[in-house]
Amino acid sequence: VVMIAFLQGKLAGRTLSSAYINVAGVGYEVFMPVSDLAKLPEENSEVTVLTYLQVSDAGIALYGYNREEEKVLFQKLIGVSGVGPKMALAALSTFTPQALADAVAAQDTALLSKIPGVGKKTASRIVLELKGSLEKEGLNLFSQEESTSTVSAALQGAQEALLSMGFTSAEVDLALKNAPENASESKVLQYALKRLGNS
Questions:
Q1: Phi and psi at residue 127, in whole multiples of 5°?
Q2: At 25, phi and psi to the nearest 5?
Q3: Which of 19, 108, 185, 187 could join 157 in a cystine, given CB atoms 3.0 to 4.6 angstroms apart?
Q4: What end-to-end distance do the CA atoms of the chain give, in Å?
Q5: Which residues pair with 19 in a beta bridge?
Q6: Is 47 helix (H, G, I), strand (E, B) or coil?
Q7: Is the pTM of this model over 0.85?
Q8: pLDDT digits over 65-79, tens only?
């Protein structure tokens, strides 16, 4: 089985539901949650997207996410009978991983029914099949992560990006020292790269 765990390349463009990533001259279309698409940098910028390759009778499709938690949750959701990739993407576009995990833990089928395409029956199945399993996967840690400020989220994203570029942890920590507060991930990344370039 071929698995494409992530793609690293340049953002060639995006639509309302997918991003086009140019990896060494090959353009991959990656379907992503709306919230993740909005966080991608401008075109021709370097991006790293976590991916899940789905092979079905309908063909082959790549689904992408900015964070590991979303990928785990996506795979959990498509494991629920009656939930396909499009519905799982809709769920991740409607709720943060934390809110989704909370709704499942609280057995809030009314809230889950707000996901486009999800009716009461499907919402009940999601609760029935996922309740308890999210905690085992460590998805109950979402709450800690989500409660931290956006500053640390931007720093964390920049940190992961720099590590994936081959910089050492020590270099990354030094580059991110005194990074501008309340800046977006791309701004923090620019700041760090500038410092690394001067060092």
A1: -65, -50
A2: 90, -5
A3: 185
A4: 43
A5: 14, 30
A6: strand
A7: no
A8: 998 889 889 999 999
